[in-house]
Amino acid sequence: MDDADHVNDPANGIGGSDWKRQVAAHWLDASSRHGMPVDISEFAEKVAPKSTYPANIAYEAAKLQNPELADRYLRRLREAAATESRSIHLPEVQADIAEELGLDRIRFFADLAGSARQAFADDQRFCHASGAHGFPTFLIRAGGRERLLRGYNRFPAFAAVFDSLAGEPLEKNRLTISEDAVLDFIGKYSSAATREVVEVFGVSDSEAEMILRQLVSKGQIEAHPAGTGTLYRALQSGEYCDPSTGACM
């Protein structure tokens, strides 16, 4: 989105001068379907950017510096906007998040003002050439074949594409849920929502919540209220959260 003031998306009821309120309502509707937490309390006043391009360019800057950390950076950008009311279109906020993940701040700013812009332009051209004209669009590749999956889809739709590209049904990796397994999962991504634990381990909401609450009660993870839900965060090395006070040291 180059300029939200020029967006016209009648299918989702978005367009015109009231686009911030409309997008906030769209976020809430999406949250009710995908189950991930969102907080729109400050969306119109603080969070809503006129353009998504700056955040996209910031992702390219992270990728130029450290491709392995780039996807974690993208996740943190999304979390920061959706659950922390942070203005991820601002360079200082983008750099703060980059530094939080261990990226070099000075290098990040240099790439942000230079090579990352060209990398984003190249990505735009690739998307247009691939036939991606709407959001979201997923390009899935396997065995020299590829398929576009357009719009909002649940995991079974992705699994069907994986099977189709493979030419046969793929064996699903079944994970057994436990406190240690969930703790490792949250540690890998630094945070997780209940819905992610449910989908990864194939359990019910109540079972996932029980494990997460147990980890919180033992001071092994933090629970952060995030608008429509809760985000569970991994602790820093050596950090401990007192279950009785909620204070982390």
For the structure shown, list the relevant keywords.
single chain, 11 helices, two-stranded antiparallel sheet, 3 domains, 249 residues, three-stranded antiparallel sheet, 12% strand, 53% helix, Arc Repressor Mutant, subunit A, 7 strands, alpha+beta, Cyclin A, domain 1
Largest sheet: 3 strands, antiparallel
Question: What is the annotated CATH architecture of the largest domain?
Answer: Orthogonal Bundle
CATH superfamily of the largest domain: putative protein disulfide isomerase domain
Number of helices: 11
Number of strands: 7
CATH uppermost class of the largest domain = Mainly Alpha
Enumerate the strands of the largest sheet in spatial order, edge to edge or round the barrel: 5-7-6
Beta-strand percentage range: 5-15%
Number of domains: 3
What is the terminal separation in angstroms? 41 Å
CATH topology of the largest domain: Cyclin A, domain 1
